[in-house]
Structures are given as structure tokens and as C-alpha cells.
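Page 42, continued from yesterday. The earlier attempt failed because a stray header line got pasted into the input along with the sequence. Redoing it now with the clean sequence only.
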Amino acid sequence: MPENRLDKVLAGTLNLSTVPADISQGNCPQWDSIRHLNLVIALEAEFAVTFEPEEIAAMRSREEILKILKTKDGV
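This time it went through. C-alpha cells are written below.
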């Protein structure tokens, strides 16, 4: 399940004990620009994928990240 792996990456990158289903840049103060870049790097490593710049810019919520991951082969 990509959701479980995504939550693990989000929790680790954003230093959270739990990841709310509706987490986004707008409601998570820890999700700043530096952690966003760290999140992208961690997601690429965890899922063995590469993201396009447009995808990186669109990753503003857990839901959006899941949508993008589901378009990748092998995820």
C-alpha cells in the first residue's frame, strides 16, 4: 500500500508522530520549503521514482502526493 509508505515518509520528514489524512502545507507548520525538498528526496528514494518539476510543485497535500504516486510505474 503506497499510503502506509507515504505516511512513514511524511512522519519521518516532518517529524510527526501521526499523519492526519488531510495533512497539507496549509495545516502543517513543519511543512516548509526546506522540508518540502527533503520530502521529495525521501519519496523518490522510498518509491524509486523521479518527479517532474510540475509534480513537485503540485505536492501540497498527502492526497495530491498519493495521486501523483499512483501515476508512477511500480508504485
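Notes: Helices lie at 2-14, 33-47, 53-58, 62-70.
Reminder to self: strip header lines before submitting.
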